[in-house]
Design goal:
By secondary structure, this protein is of the alpha+beta class. Helices cover 28% and strands 27% of the residues. It has a domain of 56 residues. The longest helix is centred in the middle third of the chain and has 12 residues.
């Protein structure tokens, strides 16, 4: 939006962009899950706890792993000139 001329905002609305992580190994998946669960200013979750959650909830049963991590965004529209 920085490249657009200044003007009023026409409409804003929350939206969700679907996303899914797929990994082939436990270590990689635990690292990614830990990163997604880390909140700035808070202590990260213990790796052992993240690994337990990954093993229980995101294993696809064939040695791969997958979980959703949809992105919440704010759509901002300007009226047409």
């Amino acid at each position: 939006m920085a490249g657009l001329p200044p003007g009023p905002v026409g409409r804003t609305e929350p939206d969700v962009v679907p996303a899914r992580y797929r990994g082939r190994g436990l270590e990689e998946t635990v690292t990614v899950a830990g990163f997604l669960l880390d909140v700035p200013g808070a202590s990260p979750p213990p790796r052992e706890a993240v690994e337990a959650q990954v093993r229980r909830h995101v294993s696809d049963g064939d040695g791969s792993y997958g979980f959703r991590h949809d992105q919440h965004v704010l759509r901002v529209e300007r009226p047409a000139p």
